[in-house]
């Protein structure tokens, strides 16, 4: 295991290193330029499309509604990254990490938009008649790069069991143990049963559950964040000012946990955790957006824009500001991850804050388990065919149980969790390389789709 983790550390330094982060953000910048700054041009149109068509039936091919696809995608992206990931970025990169997290999200909106548009454009049906799509289909059908398509599917399949299942199950168990003292083994069994009841019904049941779960959990957490910020309202402006100030200057003179953080660390950690949270550039969410009933690929890409906006610019901002305004980042410099966010809520709201954070963490993690199951199944069916689906469901529940309680059963909970996170982080990052290749190779196709959408909207052929 030590040798495996040593190799993993080397690979991780490459896939989450400066060159990959530059490529991730650079691709977003490039797409933003050639598409005419769509995150601004479509900003109000995005809200009109997302909230103006809830419950309405669109014409077109697909399996689930556009809003159900968005909910399932948000179920996957709004997870531990919004609570533990943001806190880790601030712990390692200081207040400036928040600024760079938001910058990466702005350009990530365009990246996600392009991913979704291409996923709908090149989607296909499997042997059972289910719609499938994503980077592997884009590379296969659009770029004629089948070997890269297979490689992406392999990385996605392996990553799903880590970042989408075991890690999330562990966080769900941790949330209930922190807030209510429930042993992780019990939580694992309950979550395993609930997950089995959902995924056995396929994408339709997953989307039905997430359509109700995601809005509830997001509002629940945001309301808790608003209460924390209202309690510490006098610190909001100074915290925002520090985020900007220390994004471009070295905070060597600041005390406690902030001592020694430089601009480079703030930038790299902010961008890395932002990408980890909203998954823009990784190619995961397009796998569910590709199943939406929609009349034009760019219409569905509006939901991709909104997904990054909601995940990072809204939810992650509340986490970051709760930590910064509460002062725990300097008063408790040894804390990181979910423990740091928990401390911010607990310091401000006492036991109520602990309960809000614990429930929020558990719901975020559980929803991610559901959403990422579809990603794992889609990658698996591309490689092995539909015969793998029953095996995939069984393996998902087994890995979930190990993730929730495996560390305890193995007698080294902390070591188990640390290895789990590190391996998952690397596999998640490995998905980005073939996905970015697909986006760059087919950027001309994205531009053509956007122009066609704008022309049809102006002519009245497409109405929003």
What's the layout of helices and strands?
Elements: H1 2-15, H2 18-34, H3 38-41, H4 43-52, H5 66-77, H6 80-93, H7 96-121, E1 124-125, E2 131-132, H8 135-142, H9 146-180, H10 184-199, H11 202-231, H12 236-248, H13 263-278, H14 286-289, H15 297-326, H16 328-331, H17 337-349, H18 351-384, H19 389-410, H20 413-430, H21 432-441, H22 443-459
Antiparallel strand pairs: 1-2
User: Helical content, roughly?
Assistant: over 70%
C-alpha Rg (nearest Å): 21 Å
H/I helix tally:
22
Question: What is the CATH architecture assignment?
Answer: Up-down Bundle
Fraction of residues in β-strands: under 5%
CATH topology, what is it called?
Answer: Amino acid/polyamine transporter I
Distance between the termini: 54 Å
**Mind summarizing the main beta sheet?**
2 strands, antiparallel
What is the H/E order? HHHHHHHEEHHHHHHHHHHHHHHH
- Helix-strand category: mainly alpha
Uncertain stretches: 251-263
What is the number of beta strands?
2
Find the CATH superfamily. Answer: Amino acid/polyamine transporter I
**Number of discrete domains:** 1
Please provide a written account of the structure.
This protein has a two-stranded antiparallel sheet with strand order 1-2. The protein is an all-alpha fold. It has a single domain (8-459), classed as Amino acid/polyamine transporter I (Up-down Bundle). It contains 22 helices and 2 strands. The chain has helices at residues 2-15, 18-34, 38-41, 43-52, 66-77, 80-93, 96-121, 135-142, 146-180, 184-199, 202-231, 236-248, 263-278, 286-289, 297-326, 328-331, 337-349, 351-384, 389-410, 413-430, 432-441, 443-459, and strands at 124-125, 131-132.
């Amino acid at each position: 295991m030590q040798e495996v983790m040593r190799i993993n550390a080397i690979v991780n330094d490459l896939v989450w290193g400066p060159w990959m982060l530059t490529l991730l953000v650079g691709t977003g910048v490039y797409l933003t330029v050639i598409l005419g700054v769509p995150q601004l041009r479509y900003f109000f149109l995005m809200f009109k499309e997302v909230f103006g068509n809830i419950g309405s039936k669109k014409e077109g091919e697909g399996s689930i509604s556009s809003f159900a696809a968005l909910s399932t995608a948000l179920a996957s992206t709004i997870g531990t990254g919004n609570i533990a990931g943001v806190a880790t970025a601030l712990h390692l990169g200081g207040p400036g990490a928040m600024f760079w997290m938001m910058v990466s999200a702005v350009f990530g909106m365009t990246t996600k938009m392009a991913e979704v548009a291409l996923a709908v454009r090149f989607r296909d049906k499997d042997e059972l008649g289910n719609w499938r799509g994503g980077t592997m289909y884009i590379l296969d059908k659009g770029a004629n790069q089948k070997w890269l398509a297979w490689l992406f599917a392999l990385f996605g399949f392996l990553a799903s069991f880590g970042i989408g299942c075991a890690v999330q199950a562990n966080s769900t168990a941790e949330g209930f143990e922190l807030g209510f003292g429930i042993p992780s083994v019990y939580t694992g069994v309950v979550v395993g049963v609930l997950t089995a009841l959902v995924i056995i019904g396929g994408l339709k049941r997953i989307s039905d559950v997430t359509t109700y779960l995601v809005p509830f959990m997001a509002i629940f957490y945001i309301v808790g964040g608003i209460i924390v910020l209202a309690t510490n309202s006098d610190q909001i402006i100074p915290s925002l000012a520090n985020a900007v100030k220390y994004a471009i200057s070295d905070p060597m003179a600041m005390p406690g946990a902030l001592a020694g953080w430089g601009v480079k660390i703030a930038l790299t950690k902010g961008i890395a955790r932002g990408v980890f949270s909203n998954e823009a550039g990784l190619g995961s969410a397009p796998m569910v957006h590709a199943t939406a009933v929609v009349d034009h690929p760019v219409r569905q890409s509006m939901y991709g824009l909104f997904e990054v906006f909601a995940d990072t610019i809204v939810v992650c901002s509340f986490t970051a500001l709760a930590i910064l305004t509460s002062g725990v980042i300097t008063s408790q410099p040894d804390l990181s991850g979910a423990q740091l966010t928990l401390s911010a809520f607990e310091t401000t709201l006492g036991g109520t804050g602990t309960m809000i954070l614990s429930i929020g963490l558990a719901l975020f993690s559980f929803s991610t388990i559901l959403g990422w199951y579809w990603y794992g199944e889609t990658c698996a069916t591309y490689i092995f065919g539909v015969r793998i689906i029953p095996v995939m469901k069984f393996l998902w529940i087994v890995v979930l149980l190990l993730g929730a309680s495996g560390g305890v059963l193995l007698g080294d909970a902390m070591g188990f969790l640390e290895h789990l996170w590190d391996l998952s982080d690397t596999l998640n990052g490995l998905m980005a390389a073939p996905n970015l290749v697909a986006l760059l190779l087919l950027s001309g196709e994205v531009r053509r789709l956007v122009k066609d959408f704008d022309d049809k909207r102006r002519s009245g052929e497409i109405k929003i």
